Amino acid sequence: MIELYHCRGARSFRALWALEELGLPYTLTLMPFPPRARFEGYREINPLGTVPACRIDGALMTESAAIPHVLATRFGPSDLAVAAHADAYPAYMNFLLMGEATLTFPQTIHLRYTQLEPPERRVSQAATDYAEWFGSRLRNAETLMDGDFVCAGRFTMADVSVGYAVLLAQAIGLSEYVTPGMAAYLDRLRERDGFHRALAAEQAGPPSV
Fold first, then answer.
1. What is the pTM assigned to this prediction?
2. For the range 180-188, what are the long-range contacts, defined as Cβ-Cβ under 8 Å and sequence gap of 24 or more?
C-alpha cells in the first residue's frame, strides 16, 4: 500500500508524478501549505513537518528525490530507473540528487525571502543571490545532459527530479534563469501521459489553499 501526502506545486509532485509514470495504485491526501501549521495531525504522520510524506508498505519516506527511485526499483523492474551495473548509473544518481540538492534548494531560499516570509522579514539581496545561484547551476547542469533527457538516453526518475526543479522555477518567477534549452526540455516532459495524470490527480481533490 502506498499513501502520499501532497501539497499542490510542492516537492511532493515528484512522488505523485513517479507514481503515475509507474501506474501504481496509491491513496492521495491533498493538504494546505504549510501542512505542519495547517493540516491537523501532520506532525504525527511526518515528524519533520515537510512535504512529501509517503508511506510505502508502512515505511515513511520524506525525500522527494529518493521516493521516485525507490518506487521504480521496489515495484520494478522498470527502465525508469538505471541499473547499478549500467554505464549511465553514476550520471543517473548524480542527476537524481542534483534535482533537489543543487537546483531546488536555492529556489526555496528565494521563495522564502520573496513570498513566504512576512514583508518585514523579506531579504531582497538573499533572494537575488539564490536566484542567480540557481540559474548558474541549471546552466551547468544542461551541459551534462545526454540528449533529450538528463541521462541514459531516455526518460528516467532523474528527469522527474530535475524536471520538477525547472517546473518550480517557472512557477515562482524564475523563468528568466531557465535557458531556452531547459525550457524545451520541460516542454518535452510535459507531453508525457504520466505528467498529465499527475496534474489531473492533484486537481481532483478539494482546494489545498
1. 0.93
2. 181/142, 182/138, 182/142, 185/142, 185/145, 185/148, 185/149, 188/148
